[in-house]
Write a structure and sequence with these properties.
The protein is an alpha+beta fold. The chain is built from 5 helices and 13 strands. The protein has 2 domains: 39 residues; 172 residues, no CATH class.
Amino acid sequence: MMPQPSSENAAPEFIPERDEMEVTRLERAGGARRHAPSSRPPASRIGRRLWRLGGALALVLGIVLLLNSTAFWQSLLSGRFGDGPFTAPPVGAFPTVTPLPNAVEWLRLERRPLALPSIPPGTTCPVTPRSRAFPAVGPAVGAGPVYVAGADIATGTLGFVDGRTYASTATPWGGTLQFWASDSTLHEAVLVRGRQLDGSRPLAFNGGLQQPNYSPQDDAATPLPDLWLLGDDYGYNAYTGLGIQYTRMQAPGCYGYQIDGASFSETIIFRAATYPATS
């Protein structure tokens, strides 16, 4: 008789699961070849079933979405969209995008000399007359393509708040806001500068592309010697194109704006008076 291996050295006996034993018995009864018991743990089989269930749900969802999409495109291709016929928009119905100018264009405009006239102190200020009106901002002055709009300047006098009350802290610079407008065909860089015509005071600005988030409460914002703007075609402001900007001055008097673009140069002259503005 051959020696039997001791229980300590013998490999542990594999005990198949209950359902696998039942399958084995049925196969033996039918004469089929006995399958080796599966070593796959039950958790693996459950995960595989969950994957199959998830795939089936994803397939159903995809079919539903495809059917909805097909109905939409069939409606579109058949010439019906919503309640009316679908027609392609005419050529040119959508505006073209104009490339923005770069800083070099404003720097080039700054090389132009400031050609504003000088007048003796105490003489009549030759103000620029009203030329047109804009629906959203009222009357405007200027020969175009750039205009300054507002009820004050349309009378020739621009009222401003002096430096003691303009900002939260006292400053030598008073100021006021102005609506700047342009012809809808203007799409180029615009440079605005100015000075006093009956004296030596400078004219300064806040806002524009250099200070897009400026407000009078921003005491740290330095008044600028010029203002960088863009024409109406860029759509930065729906009703004027050039938006609301701030003009800064130190004293009343006769002042002038010089407005330069690559294709034009114009001058707007006005009286500046502390509020309330008087003619």
